[in-house]
Specification:
The complex is a heterodimer.
Chain A lengths: L4 H7 L6 H33 L3 H6 L12 H8 L11 H31 L5 H11 L5 H14 L5 H24 L4 H9 L4 H12 L1 H17 L2 H6 L7 H10 L7 H34 L3
Chain B lengths: L1 H34 L16 H8 L1 H32 L6 H9 L6 H11 L6 H7 L16 H26 L3 H9 L4 H12 L1 H17 L2 H6 L11 H11 L3 H31 L1
Helix pairs in contact in B: 1-13, 2-13, 3-7, 3-10, 4-7, 5-7, 7-10, 8-9, 10-13, 12-13
The chains are: A mainly alpha, B mainly alpha.
Chain lengths: 301, 290
């Protein structure tokens, strides 16, 4: 909306020479380019380091390109690096994360859709208070529920298991998924629901035939948000898992801080890229929805 | 029966989630609050003994360090990320040809796990092989950059990595704010010959006050909850020089076996978050209901 540069070139005082304006423009692009380098540098360093041999890492410079490209570090990171006493690489933990994220995302999104539908279109007495209470739940620092949750998972017999982690992620994802769907559904006119009820459609029928078909964009936003949150989670992963059920972030941290043997920086970097790849891919493919989730999650629309 | 169900179905659908939130958020907060008032050590005890855990907490030098670190980290992180975010947003708002691509580059760190970010920066800041040795290799043999392992400076490495991770997001917030300013007012100001920088400082930025508030809330919230980044980058060290409340709580809960301390530190964290978030959410919800 802010058309600053275009009309400005017509209205600005003539004293500023055209040369000056071109120079300013160049400066702008140079600045933007430098900042782009700043953000890309760590990724570049991770990538080049992961392709170098340990020998080259010790003798070469941080930002130099590898003289000889080697994928050994990637192989080790995927299937041979040690997380403590086990040396199976990141692979089993990567699959743990998939096994945790997929059901947790699906369940919390579905519940969020239903909750959002109720809160936005089936208002009953107290619905607002319920929604506010759920919303506040989004903001608690999870440290405050860590201890009782650990005890509860133990009592339920799912401590240190993947179902236990799915349960935790669903519970603490509900606030956000409900919020996303609620904010989306309030933009659908309530006349639509009323007309459908006059025609004899019930609660579930209206949800299924009217709301769900309209929901694709918000489903994408919610799925991306939840997937990123759950894949990148470390606190729940490290608190509620045990050897063998850890998610990939915990395994990555264990590989990097493993004290056995020689420090293999190239393996660390390859492992970090592998652990970051799924969310990075989602971001590159669906960045628009990712940003929408971020801003919806922070600025209550 | 079926009519009753049809009438009450909305409540029935919402009930499980609501009960879950009541138990797992509010009930659990209550549990933690209760235990923070007991003498619990390795196992929770339920006999209330007053504020003894909080007294221990405020007497603890380690907690003192954690709180000081939170001040340093929080202040620098919030201020620098906001300034940088605003600057980038203004730069990007000048009809840049490849804006989409640049925005993608600035924002991608936000998609990464803090553990990945921490691992990357731990390597870049590695005193023997990272930036220090690179600059030394350029001929500046006296160059020293050992912040990562220096107890006095290690907290600033966490600030650096956190800013790298989050500033692009602040940029996205501000950019959306800049784009939502009324274009007519800006055009009118341009016709009047008001210089661009004055348009920004006098018209656009003041009208973005709510965005500043949102960005502040988000960043403050991130700062208080910071845990993964510290674990991955410094592990809270050297010693406990980079402890934050979140890592203190975790250490007490899972490695020191001091549940009372864990509970009381968690309660303090929650009070800080609530002091920031509750007034904000309250005003937001009220504004919407009016």
């Amino acid at each position: 909306m802010t058309d600053l540069s275009m009309p400005q070139s017509q209205t600005e005082p003539r004293s500023q020479s055209a040369v000056g304006k071109v120079a300013l423009r160049w400066l702008l692009y140079v600045l933007l380019g430098l900042f782009a380098l700043y953000y890309l540098m760590p990724l570049f360093v991770m990538l080049t380091t992961s392709l170098k041999s340990l020998e080259e890492i010790r003798t070469g410079s941080l930002i130099s390109l590898p003289r000889e490209v080697s994928f050994d570090a990637w192989k080790t990171a995927w299937s041979g690096a040690c997380t403590g006493i086990q040396c199976e690489g990141l692979r089993p933990y990567f699959w743990n994360s998939v096994l945790i994220a997929v059901p947790a995302v699906a369940i919390s999104t579905l519940l969020g859709a239903l909750n959002g539908y109720v809160v936005a279109h089936w208002r009953f007495k107290g619905a607002n208070i319920i929604f506010s209470l759920m919303l506040f739940g989004c903001f608690i620092p999870f440290q405050v529920v860590l201890l009782p949750m650990a005890r509860l998972l133990g009592m339920m017999g799912i401590a240190g298991t993947i179902p236990g982690l799915i349960f935790v992620h669903v519970i603490y994802g509900l606030g956000f998924t409900t919020l996303f769907f609620r904010n989306y559904y309030v933009t659908i006119p309530s006349e639509l629901t009323k007309a459908a009820r006059v025609d004899g459609a019930g609660f579930l029928r209206i949800f299924w035939s009217i709301f769900l078909p309209l929901s694709l964009p918000i489903i994408v936003v919610t799925v991306i948000w939840q997937f990123t949150q759950i894949w990148n989670d470390f606190l729940f992963g490290v608190s509620f898992s045990q050897a063998g059920t850890q998610p990939v972030t915990v395994a990555l941290n264990n590989i990097v801080n493993s004290t056995t043997g020689v420090k293999e920086y190239n393996v660390d970097m390859a492992a970090a890229i592998i652990a970051g790849l799924p969310t990075l891919l989602v971001y590159v493919v669906a960045g628009k929805y990712f940003i929408r989730g971020l801003t919806a999650g922070s600025v209550k629309g | 029966m079926s009519e009753w169900l049809e009438n009450h179905l909305p409540k029935v659908v919402l009930a499980p989630s609501f009960i879950a939130v009541l138990i797992f958020v509010y009930g659990f907060i209550g549990w933690t609050a209760w235990v923070s008032l007991t003498r619990s050590k390795l196992l929770p005890k339920y006999e209330i003994k007053g504020f003894i855990q909080y007294e221990r907490l405020f007497d603890s030098p380690r907690w003192d360090t954690a709180i000081n670190n939170l001040y340093i980290f929080g202040a620098l992180f919030i201020v620098i990320a906001m300034v940088l975010g605003l600057l980038l947003a203004i730069l990007l708002d000048q009809k840049i040809r490849v804006e989409g691509a640049i925005r993608t580059i600035y924002l991608y760190p936000m998609a990464l796990s803090m553990i990945v970010t921490g691992t990357a920066w731990k390597w870049i800041l590695n005193p023997g092989l990272g930036i220090e040795s690179m600059v030394q290799g350029w001929g500046f043999t006296n160059f020293e950059f050992d912040w990562l392992v220096n107890p006095d400076y290690a907290i600033y490495t966490i600030v650096m990595a956190a800013i790298w991770q989050s500033s692009g997001f602040v940029m996205a917030l501000f950019l959306a704010g800049l784009r939502s300013v009324d274009g007519e007012i800006i055009k009118a100001a341009q016709v009047d010959g008001i210089p661009t920088w004055r348009i920004y400082t006098a018209i656009i930025i003041p009208s973005m006050a709510p965005i500043f508030l949102s960005a502040f809330i988000v960043l403050a919230h991130l700062a208080i909850k910071s845990f993964d980044l510290v674990i991955a980058l410094t592990g809270g060290g050297p010693g406990y020089a980079t402890d934050l409340p979140a890592t203190y709580m975790y250490a007490m809960a899972f490695s020191r076996g001091d549940i009372g301390q864990a509970a009381s530190s968690a309660m303090i964290m929650m009070l800080v978050v609530f002091a920031i978030v509750v007034p904000y959410l309250y005003s937001e919800l009220r504004a919407k209901n009016d």
